[in-house]
Amino acid sequence: MSSQLSATPNIEVLAVGSTVPADVAVFVTERMTVDVTSALRRVKNTSRIPVVLIASDIDRADLFTAVECNVVGVLPRAAATSKRIEEAVLTAAAGGGVLPSKLLGELLRQFERMQREVLSPHGLHTSGLTPREIDVLRLMSEGLDTAEIAVQMCLSERAVKRVVSGVTHRLNLRNRPHAVAYALRSGVI
Question: Does the predicted model carry a pTM greater than 0.70?
Answer without folding.
Answer: no
